[in-house]
Amino acid sequence: QAFSCIDQNRDGIITKADLKETYWQLGKTNVSEEELEEMLKEGKGPINFTVFLTLFGEKLNGTDPEESILNAFKLFDPAGTGTVNKDEFKQLLLTQADKFSPEEVEQMFAVTPVDVSGNIDYKSLCYIITHGDEKE
């Protein structure tokens, strides 16, 4: 949801114009071009949803968000298997509370560990959200 709010032009990439507009909507109109450039440099390239999650996870480092995220997933895993069904989870993301767009769901699933049975290893996904992609 935060990514969608910042990606003002809805092109899937956070740009300087997106950041400037977000700040403007929050009432901060004096953000310098240098500040915006510094923010974008943190992504080491275009800031898409996956990069945004990684950056967000890095900013949360030092707190304990992983435990909170795991506890949220456990609500969908009453048997305690450590997995949730991808199709069921996708349906929940598209239809419940702060709904994801189909594009956001696909971006998330691009970095999500899914086994051959179509189940998401949510412990690994929580690690990716809070620490970045395992392959990095």
Automatic annotation (TrEMBL):
User: What's the protein called, per UniProt?
Assistant: MLRA protein
Gene3D superfamilies in alphabetical order: EF-hand (1.10.238.10)
Keywords (alphabetical) are: Calcium, Metal-binding, Repeat
What is said about its interaction partners and assembly?
A: Myosin is a hexamer of 2 heavy chains and 4 light chains.
What are the EF-hand domain coordinates in residue numbering?
A: 1-29, 64-99
Organism of origin is Oceanodroma tethys
User: Hey, what's the signal peptide range on this chain?
Assistant: none
User: Carries keyword Metal-binding?
Assistant: yes
Q: Which domain of life is it from?
A: Eukaryota
**Gene Ontology terms, MF aspect:** calcium ion binding
